[in-house]
Write a structure and sequence with these properties.
The chain is 70% helix and 0% strand. It is mostly helical. Helix 3 crosses helix 6 and helix 7 (114-130) crosses helix 8.
Length: 159
């Protein structure tokens, strides 16, 4: 039996090398980071960690393929749908969950479906833990503080 997540990662890594060779280390670091944080949060929230990890691997796929952040959630959902269908390893329901989460991941101040929230939170963790010396953005501050509490960490958010 093949591992779906590894098959997906191979596709994503190939796209990064083809489309973003000069930014490959950034995209690999960020996409794997979000994918791993999403799996951790899914375990904590009693969701499927593989599906959450899939959301994380694909959440910025439009940035990878198009080189822009302009509407990358909505447009990325379409790219992700095409990739997942081509792999032929995901059900229609799983593809819907992943693409919905991707299309909504920029709306950090809005509470939505469980996988949407896992992806948003994993993205925030990746942004904030990439370099803890960076200032927490206003739009991510509340979400980050709530994550620290959920994970049992003493709040260390900087003003």
């Amino acid at each position: 039996m093949s591992n779906r997540l590894e098959s997906l990662r191979n596709v994503v890594e190939r796209l990064i090398q083809e489309c973003q060779p000069s930014n490959s280390s950034y995209f690999v670091t960020h996409l794997y980071g979000v994918s791993e944080y999403a799996a951790l949060l899914a375990f904590r929230r009693d969701l499927d960690p593989e599906l959450a990890s899939t959301c994380g691997m694909l959440h910025d796929i439009y940035q990878v393929t198009a080189g822009t952040t302009n509407k990358h959630g909505k447009k990325g959902a379409k790219v992700a749908k095409r990739i997942l269908r081509q792999l032929g390893l995901y059900s229609d329901e799983e593809i819907f969950i992943v693409t919905t989460a991707i299309s909504r991941h920029r709306k950090k101040r809005k509470i939505q479906e469980p996988y949407d929230e896992v992806l948003k939170d994993a993205d925030v963790l990746s942004h904030q833990l990439y370099n803890t010396g960076f200032t927490v953005t206003k739009k991510e501050r509340i979400r980050f503080e709530l994550l620290l509490v959920e994970l049992g960490c003493k709040s260390a958010v900087r003003k």
